[in-house]
Amino acid sequence: MIKYIGQTRILVAVDCIIFGFDGSDFKLLLIQRGFAPEKKRWSLMGGFIQPEETLEVAANRVLKQLTGLEDVYLEQLQAFSGPDRDPVERTIAVAYFALIDIHKYEKQISHEYHAEWFLLKDMPQLIFDHGQMVELAKKRLRYKAALHPVLFELLPERFTIPQLQALYEGLYETEFDKRNFSRKILSTGLLVKQNEKDKENSRKGAFYYKLDKRKYSENFQAFLKFIPNPDKFLV
Amino acid sequence: MIKYIGQTRILVAVDCIIFGFDGSDFKLLLIQRGFAPEKKRWSLMGGFIQPEETLEVAANRVLKQLTGLEDVYLEQLQAFSGPDRDPVERTIAVAYFALIDIHKYEKQISHEYHAEWFLLKDMPQLIFDHGQMVELAKKRLRYKAALHPVLFELLPERFTIPQLQALYEGLYETEFDKRNFSRKILSTGLLVKQNEKDKENSRKGAFYYKLDKRKYSENFQAFLKFIPNPDKFLV
DNA sequence: CCAAAAGTGTTGTGGCTACACCCATGA
DNA sequence: TCATGGGTGTAGCCACAACACTTTTGG
């Protein structure tokens, strides 16, 4: 194969910021790095890109390795390229963020990587520039969720409106008026009310809803307004 | 230096989608590729990342090589990683898009690369996946400009409101009501009216405005609404 | 005096926010 | 029966979109 001469070839990795929601808090799935350098310190799950893979395929592979899950919401965040970001050898990392239903993960948990869920508000220090990646992912998710119904990716098939509200409130670290919130959400037409109630979290019980998947994929790109006064929350 | 063993190292390039606005049309700056493969075909300006550079530095370098300009608006778009996107050798490309004042460029034009401005609507076929990059950049810019005052980056220091409107209309390939448009733009408080008029484009003449740079940088992240019915335009 | 583009105001409507009370249930 | 969280309606306000005529001036 002909080659471009005189150019430097570099390691390319993908790192995954994995978000989850446990019904009341936003969480992040981290692993305890098993090899030097920085052995035992907390880190995002990552891996090097392989010869025949696209970045997207690599990110999906890495995610599946850790969680066992496929067909997960995954979005390219940004490439990080500080020449010394990895002290061992120059590596460019392309960060992806994933939104997973935390319950699905728990069913398939692998202890191989010493993975743990951390509260997003209460994260350990991470290696390299992983902390920056998480900050950026949070910002991007806030931005995106203000306009598109992406947060449903974090919920199980059935969920209640109070749960959904807790999810938004967790992401934006604030509280919303529940009357306005439920009106706004229901007015999208994305939710289908079920007959059963969730009786675990209150005495009265809250009705379950499911996502209308057809409308969801049709309207995903639509420009909605989920968050009042977005200026306040979107830096 | 210790190294990660058994991993493949890959070429990493940056490619720049360079937008300009000539007062009535949106344009794209392309070069005619000077070497094989695909010699003589039109292409985005790009270059390989160097050992001590970040991607951002590389993109700025590449942009300066072609245009002579520094301190230009430049934003990372996405990494493109199809294993066969470059037939010579596997290369991952990180695309950046740039917004430049076309007049500044014309002052510093370099003929070294056989660069030419093309109408965005009327582009030649590009090599590799550059066509996809341009499409994505257009989409991203439409999205961004609907919410943030980023299009001012394309204008010279003095500009008129009709010019500004033509700029928005070019990007969204539509027409806006001029009364609503000017009211909306002026209500941001970002513009400072000048005393002179531009007499080149009409008999009556249109007042020049300048950008209030302090307010511009303060409000850049603010969540505005420049485009009526954004759903229509933002896929 | 005519053509061509700049500039400017009003009104109706719909969507947003703010706000408070009743309901169902398990303990 | 009481404590807890679920569920619901309204009114005022503001922002938006739709719309047409006058002004300026160069030729």
From TrEMBL, chains A, B:
Cross-referenced Gene3D superfamilies: Nucleoside Triphosphate Pyrophosphohydrolase, Winged helix-like DNA-binding domain superfamily/Winged helix DNA-binding domain
Bilayer-spanning residue ranges: none
InterPro entries: NUDIX_hydrolase-like_dom_sf (IPR015797), NUDIX_hydrolase_dom (IPR000086), WH-like_DNA-bd_sf (IPR036388), WH_DNA-bd_sf (IPR036390), WHD_NrtR (IPR054105)
Origin: domain of life: Bacteria
Pfam families reported for this sequence: NUDIX, WHD_NrtR
CDD domains, sorted: NUDIX_NadM_like
Domain Nudix hydrolase residue range list: 9-141
Protein name: DNA mismatch repair protein MutT
